[in-house]
Amino acid sequence: MTMIKVDELKEIIKMLDQSSIHVVELEDRGAKVVIRKADRQPPAGNAVPEQTERLPETTLRQSANAKIPAEQHSPLPNPAAESKRADQQGSLQPIASPMVGTFYSKPEPNEPSFVKPGDKVKPDTIVCIIEAMKLFNEIEAEITGELVEVLVRDGELVEYGQPLFLVKAE
């Protein structure tokens, strides 16, 4: 199965933005991607979006009452500790997430990770997969060096620009 790469999606979005076309639909082997141009003007009056999805009230109440486990609480940033870590890292370069999605270190749950600390990586080395909107995007290192640290766990949600790995650049 061929996966659409992040760079290809970015190029399609750029072409859509520069054209008068408002919607692009791509379909390949059961996978479908729909990209719509956003309206640049705020809706007039009391406009209601075409589709609204409502969660059942019980789900909303459960979400509001849900407790966040202590391990998910992040402490306040400590600039002194961060600068000390930066000094220790020296020439370490992050590989950052190019999108919001779910991080996977392995191609399949029962297979080994794409990379592990100590592995040599090249710009075209696939280091992980990020699932976004049911699309599995292979993420390449885009740097040459030695992988030093994996910063996220399998199945963890990642943000755009979030460091995923640290690489000692060559």
From TrEMBL:
The keyword Oxidoreductase does not apply. The lineage of its organism: Bacteria, Bacillati, Bacillota, Bacilli, Bacillales. It comes from the Bacteria. The keyword Mitochondrion does not apply. Pfam families: Biotin_lipoyl (PF00364). This is Biotin carboxyl carrier protein of acetyl-CoA carboxylase. PROSITE patterns: BIOTIN (PS00188), BIOTINYL_LIPOYL (PS50968). Keywords: Biotin, Fatty acid biosynthesis, Fatty acid metabolism, Lipid biosynthesis, Lipid metabolism. It comes from Brevibacillus fulvus. Residues 92-168 form the Lipoyl-binding domain.
